[in-house]
Write a structure and sequence with these properties.
The protein is an all-beta fold. The protein has a single domain (2-99), classed as Immunoglobulin-like (Sandwich). The chain has strands at residues 2-3, 10-13, 20-25, 28-32, 44-47, 52-53, 80-88, 91-99. A four-stranded antiparallel sheet has the order 4-3-7-8, with no helix packed on it. Strands 1-6 form a two-stranded antiparallel sheet. Strand 7 (80-88) and strand 8 form a beta hairpin.
Length: 102
C-alpha cells in the first residue's frame, strides 16, 4: 500500500524500473520483477491528498533468474520462510512470509 500523507495530489510511478520487488530465501535469489521484465515504462497512478492505493502482484512460486536465465535449483519454490523486498517511489519495505506445501 502506498499512502500520500500530504494535502495535495501526487503521482506515483509503479512502472519498471521505478517500482521493484524481489523474493529471496536467505542468500538465495528466488524471484524478481526485474528478471524478465516486459518493457520499461512509467505506470503513473495519481493519489489524492491523504489518499492511498494498493497494487497486487501474483507469484506462482516459479523461480526466475536475471536476464531470463534458467534459475539454479528447483524450478518451483518449496515450503519455507521467504523475504520480500518492495521499492516504490524511493521507499523500501521488507517483510518475511511462509509458504506451506503447494
Amino acid at each position: 500500500m502506498v499512502k500520500n500523507t500530504g494535502g495535495g495530489a501526487c503521482k506515483v510511478n509503479f512502472g519498471a524500473p521505478a517500482a521493484f520487488m524481489k523474493i529471496s530465501s536467505g542468500d538465495d535469489h528466488v524471484w524478481s520483477s526485474d528478471d524478465c521484465a516486459r518493457g520499461a515504462g512509467a505506470l503513473l497512478v495519481e493519489l489524492p491528498g491523504s489518499g492511498e492505493t494498493k497494487r497486487t502482484v501474483e507469484w506462482d512460486r516459479k523461480r526466475t533468474a536475471p536476464q531470463c536465465a534458467t534459475p539454479a535449483g528447483d524450478a518451483v519454490a518449496g515450503s519455507g520462510t521467504y523475504r520480500v523486498e518492495v521499492k516504490v517511489a524511493g521507499v523500501t519495505e521488507r517483510l518475511e512470509f511462509k509458504l506451506e506445501k503447494a
